[in-house]
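= Tokenised fold =
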Amino acid sequence: MSYRKRTAALASVAALAGSAVLMAAPAARAEVVDVNYQCKTPIGDKSAVSPIDIKGVPSGDGYKVTMSWQKGVSSSPVELGKGAMNPSATIELGGADSGTLQVSGPANQEAVPANTPIKINDLTGTYTPKKSGKVTFTPGVLTIKALGTTTTCTPSNSPGPALTLDVKAAAGSGGGTPQSGTGSDSGGELPQTGPEDSAIALATLGGTVLLTGAAGTLWLTRRNRTVRH
């Protein structure tokens, strides 16, 4: 098989293998979960139920995670002007990983009328896997800061995960990875080649020996002729 044909064949095999890996990779599983928030506000306790959606998309060595509220939570006895409210939240990690992920977002872009449910903008954060496997993302505590006050809303109904990702730990997170180099190693051995490359090398070497032999025979013939004279 020629070098060009062999290279094309190897490229085809690699492409097929890559396609198989992509088809076999499990997709992320997401679902909207209802969260019953119990909120501690400056004017007393309040409660509200909001469907929560969590999404994750690859970003660098990790994932960009977005938490969305489909309904407003809590309220304010006075109007909150534009930019007066700053929300943040935590997401509980489970499965192959543990701990919490902090997410935050921009302040309110429009004024919030008094005594109306506060709509929370999408909150985002970056998750970098520390372990490989299936990781779950469950809505945690919501914190709203406005006009110098802080409102804390805690889920009271033990909501299930809103997102499950099959993740792979970033390089260096779980110990060293084997290193590979190029060229000759410390023992001075040449890189090994495949069978066909070896055959080509032997053929080249054989041709060199053959040429050397012919040159040697020619030189001996000429020398013998010289002696005869």
Notes: Helices lie at 3-24, 195-228. The longest helix spans residues 195-228. The first strand starts at residue 29 and ends at 30. The CA atoms of residues 18 and 163 lie 26 Å apart.
